[in-house]
Amino acid sequence: MVYKIRVILDAKESIFRDIEIKDKQTLWNLHLGIKSAFSLPGDELSSFYFSDEDWSEGRAVPLEDMSDDGDGEIMSDVYVNEGFSQKGDKMRFQYGFLDLWEFFCELVDVIDEKPAVNYPITAYRFGNVPLKAPSKNAASGGSSKKSTMPLMDDDFGFEDDFKSVDFDDDDFDDEEEEEGYNDDVFDDDED
Q1: Residue 30 · residue 5 · CB < 8 Å
Q2: Secondary structure element (H or E) that encloses residue 62, with its range
Q3: pTM for this prediction
Q4: For the chain, where are the E strands, in sequence order?
Q5: Which of 64, 91, 102, 182 registers the highest number of CB atoms within 10 A of its CB?
């Protein structure tokens, strides 16, 4: 059987692709299909997340094993029919770390396999993919999750802990030199 999975980019505009993939292929194959369909750059870390009807993130299935003991579940361990057991089943897909691309994946149809087709394939394209990942403040509905970018210092209010100090130019005299200061670090020893 072939699964038709609609993959929707989390963006302000409607941008999606329908990807057809065999039910016995893995989430790793679907990951490659999504990368190809959306022309995603590089070989970034990525993860699928089992989701409920409200697109809440459930169990993660990463591209590579990040567990301490080295026996965690990865994309190549999970078949597509395990992630999408029936029509309407959903998963989330995140690609990248600094530039986070977020996608909503839903099984929309199950069809017969066509002979001589090398799955996964992009069966339908709608919308133009932006050159860089859409910002989260421009995203419409669906995702309330923030980017995985580390929090910036100003998110913690560190500025409030430090008093602003104004230095006058008169406090520093560029022409003053300390005694014994020598710009020539490498003295030639001539014996």
Answers
A1: yes
A2: strand 57-62
A3: 0.69
A4: 2-9, 16-22, 46-51, 57-62, 90-95, 101-111, 121-126
A5: 91
